[in-house]
Amino acid sequence: MPQPIRLKDHEKDARLIRRRAVVGALVFLLLTAALVARMYYLQVVQYEYHSTLSENNRVHVQPLPPTRGLIFDRNGVLVADNRPSFSLTLTRERAGDWAQVLDVIVEVLALSSDERALFEKRVRQGRRPFEPVPVLFELSEEQIAIIAVNQFRLPGVEVVAQLVRHYPQREHFAHSVGYVGRINEKELKELDPVAYSGTHHIGKTGVERFYEEQLHGEVGYEEVETNARGRVLRVLKRVDPLPGKDVMLTIDVRLQEAAEAALGGRRGAIVAIQPSTGEVLAMVSQPSFDPNPFVTGISFKAYAELRDSIDQPLFNRVLRGLYPPGSTIKPMMAVAALDAGVITPTSRVFDPGFYQLPNHSHKYRNWNRSGDGWVSLEMAIMRSNDTYFYDLAHKMGIDRMHDYMTRFGLGQRVSLDMFEETAGLMPSRDWKRARYRQTWYPGETLILGIGQGYMQTTPLQLAQATALMATRGKWIRPHLAKTIEGLPPVDSEPLPDIQLRDLKSWDSARFGMEQVMHGPRGTARKVGDSAVYRIAGKSGTAQVVAIRQGEKYDRNKVQERHRDHALFIAFAPADNPQIAVAVMVENGESGSGVAAPVVKQVMDAWLLDDSGQLKAEYATPVSAEVGQR
Amino acid sequence: MNSNFDRVLSSEDVLRRRASLLQRVHIDGILLLLLLILAVGSLFILYSASGKNVDLLIKQASSFGIGLAGMFIIAQFEPRFMARWVPLAYVAGVSLLVVVDVMGHNAMGATRWINIPGVIRFQPSEFMKIIMPATIAWYLAKRSLPPSLKHVAISLSLILLPFVLILLQPDLGTSLLVITSGAFVLFIAGLQWRWILGAVAALVPVAVAMWFFVLREYQKQRVLTFLNPESDPLGSGWNIIQSKAAIGSGGVFGKGWLLGTQSHLDFLPESHTDFIIAVLAEEFGLVGVCLLLLVYLLLIARGLVITVQAQTLFGKLLAGALTMTFFVYVFVNIGMVSGLLPVVGVPLPFISYGGTSLITLLAGFGILMSVHTHRKWIAQA
Fold it and tell me: How far B13 CA sits from the closest chain A CA (Å)?
């Protein structure tokens, strides 16, 4: 039945398809004509134009690198600057045998074979055709003259003026501002090749790295006509680059210098934060280094010296140094325990000089072996009584302790804009199970109560926890940039404020901290006595090597590098906090004796006027705060 | 209607006997001749474009050899045999695309490859360029023409599934070519003009939606660069500025073989792959370009003749769609290099360096030859 119909359809289909094929053929002819017309336009109508571009004179698109944004301290003192500098560039395509040209450069400038190898590496990193690659930086007048005289032997070699990053404050800001360096091959792969087409440097660490995007600016370009030798004949078109944004730091150069002076020649770290704003006023990691050689390429020998130094100048102690917080954690533990309801401001613990878990023989020692007798909370902070805090920790338990300490920022990155900050460690049951495949032991809870054990904090975290004590739990991430082109940095994931059931819990712990400095038996009363304002502080020591049960720490037996690190945290004025400081003195041993004076010196530099009196604006405001006591 | 059999018997002169001999091994002489011209031309241009790289020439020549062998083998299969296996091939192709999307090997930020280390490494999307038109041709060949709304809808969903899968890889260029090859079947099958116009009108909002929701940043950049190459002279615009300069400086007769300055001084990027037409235009001028276009047009004309003469509906639809898609390759590539179209990664057929596209293209021509030379069973049916 379908046979005849199919045949009929077949005829009709064939006609339909023939029609469509003809339509297709016509459209293709038209489109091909369009292609031919386009080619005619390019090859005949525009022939003169294109052939001029391509034959005798070539058009080059040259990127114009943007000027990097400047960095100032909070008062406008220049911290990172761009300095004109003469560099020697080589354009591979114009040099002919470029290896030989390098030989000539090395010969006329009397350079070493090491430098020759460095040049070769730099030339090989060249990216776009006809791009001049800088091989030697900071040419002297004499070198420029020698190159000029030998120019005929150096095809493709040019002396160009470039802006090169310079850090006038040298080692003062190496750990906070960081430095820029030449873009390496790994970075080259990740960078937007267009945005960085004219740029040879990129932020490597610190603020320079964190705010790279803002500091870098936008690339411009110019289309230039060059002759066959590559000399620019005229600029056809120019789009100016957009300079990078200026960054104003929160750091105060004078305070930074005062803090460094306070630390003297000792190794250590200092962080000073303005609690109300989270602005980092000073950030010291000592010893430091001069970042300037890193900009143009530090010699291997100089780098090896820095890297291998036993004092570790390249190590950022503030952000990456991990120390058990020791007794400095006690005020925060006290706040936590009060809020958790396991202690009250008036509850007391008897200290016989040690603490024992029920049914355990192990004695957890107080630092004062003879014991402090009946101890209240304020007394415990003032005397840094370990027994009280063993008991407190036992009552709190690890879970609650982990919860509260995390809210103080321990075990997590706290900064807003600091590159390569370490999270540190606030241990928990889960962490221990994952890390050691073991359950949590009650004894480990006890030593956490005095800031020992697994707990690891950075000086920055300690400073931030101190700032939280000062602001009664108001979280503002510490940051280094006050403004970027006039605008403050924005915290995209702010941390929640610490909300306590009873605000008075803060005051009990804070009063204890004040007693540390000004109480009759305060551990740092010597320092407190010399202050013209009230300080709230807490000392601590971070063990470098473990001490066995029953053994006593004897400084004479311990090698200098194995001595305890001295810690001290404080904020002042106690009733109107303007500055929170954390100090770590490496192998300094005594928090109260060594680190506390450093803290006070930093505070003095910030709080006192020229006559040695508390600046009027920092004086205690007439408010309920005073009335409370 | 002449059958081959008749022609063999009645042949008198040498030429006709030779042609019939070719037909008996299912090769179309005209197509073969044109393809060989392109192959030889390609090697000449590649030699120049690659900077006299002989290794590359040998690779390309062996790809040609493999492709021609593949073409020869495919031409031996009857179209009816192919039609039988098309549905299975479609299912297999789509499954492979799903595999690629789920766990494909990552190359250049886009997942396009299936890679069994040491065994095989290929792009399933490449096969789809042939399976796609074959599937639609298979489906529509069994219906009455022009296709009804229902069959158009089913065809479109058959087209859209692999399209979306390839788009997800993401590979915009190939996915558009695949959708085009399927759409051409519908076109040849007599899709009503008002629907075609309607689809074109609907494309505008679809394009807008794709811009905002589907296109990746680099793809948007390409379109923007096309619209205004000056906007990005250091990045993607560089290619277009340089290729235009290369083409334009060729003039009417070109600078001569191996004498192109733009390509030889490394100004021209991708000079031996997607942008090879610029090398040809620079060295052989407008004349060279026109000759190449002429060869392409002859190939297409022959393809359309085969379409019209094919005896089965499946053969007609498939041959027509393959031929028309072939034109799209040519047009899109030359249009892109000369600055008429945005830069999408479409190689110039038979001239650009690259084995995969070569083999796929020759497989397509194998199908054309099969359609044209297997006439006996139709005559008997």
Answer: 31
